[in-house]
Specification:
With 225 residues, the chain is α/β, with parallel strands linked by helices. 39% of the residues lie in helices and 22% in strands.
């Protein structure tokens, strides 16, 4: 599955590319509108993620040119321009979806997966399961043994990462970088607090625990044998 990210902010582009790469996507990045249009016109992409404010050629003009050329690659606008008129302009300009910055990576991933299905691409995983724990990435609903579990956005991202790495030890550094986007240790108990809250929600009322602390290493979410 190929994704083209057209984003002039290198940190944001790198964050998206790294995250999508970890989920099995092949990602190309263009840093300005003109280069992005050239790459998009070459075709072969399942989805394009396009910023609105780009040097050289703005995002809406880029997508309009893409559509005039007969290119029907699904486009997700990703922009800090979040007013209603901005979103309407993006969709009328040929965009298929619109996500406002700042954004949660899990939502970006879910929207890209929805666009690949809508565009006829190969279906991608939209449900994660570990034992009787189920996460729907599209509706953002979580349940265990059929009982719904209400999670805060950060708790959802934390659980999603743990479920994608089920059966493996996830270190503190991995969580800081992938869930909190910290590339340094803030020397706080933020992870411990969130893991404790998450454990209370997914394990407290159930006989068999799923979330385990691995002393000196990190955490592991695993189904009972």
């Amino acid at each position: 599955m190929r994704v083209l990210v057209i984003e002039d902010d290198s940190e944001t582009a790198g964050y998206i590319a790294k995250g999508l790469g970890e989920h099995g996507f092949t990602v190309d990045v263009a840093a300005d509108g003109k280069q992005g249009l050239v790459q998009a016109l070459d075709g072969g992409y399942d989805v394009a993620v396009v910023d609105r404010m780009l040097p050289g050629l703005d995002g809406v003009a880029l997508v309009e040119a893409l559509r005039k050329a007969g290119q029907d690659t699904p486009v997700l606008f990703l922009s800090a321009m979040g007013a209603v008129q901005d979103r309407v302009a993006g969709l009328k300009g040929g965009g298929d979806d619109y996500l406002v910055k700042p954004f949660a990576f899990s939502e970006l991933l879910a929207r890209i997966e929805a666009l690949t299905r809508r565009g006829g691409g190969a279906p991608r995983e939209t449900t994660l399961r570990v034992g009787d724990l189920v996460m729907d990435l599209l509706s953002r609903e979580v349940s265990r043994a059929g009982r719904p579990i209400a999670l805060q956005p950060r708790e959802f991202r934390l659980l999603e990462y743990l479920m994608r790495h089920a059966g493996r030890v996830v270190t503190r550094t991995m969580l800081l970088e992938q869930v909190w986007d910290y590339h340094f240790d803030p020397q706080s108990n933020v992870i411990d607090v969130h893991v404790s809250r998450l454990r209370q929600k997914i394990d407290r009322d159930f006989e068999t625990p799923l979330l385990h602390t691995v002393r000196g290493a990190g955490y592991s979410l695993r189904a009972p044998v």
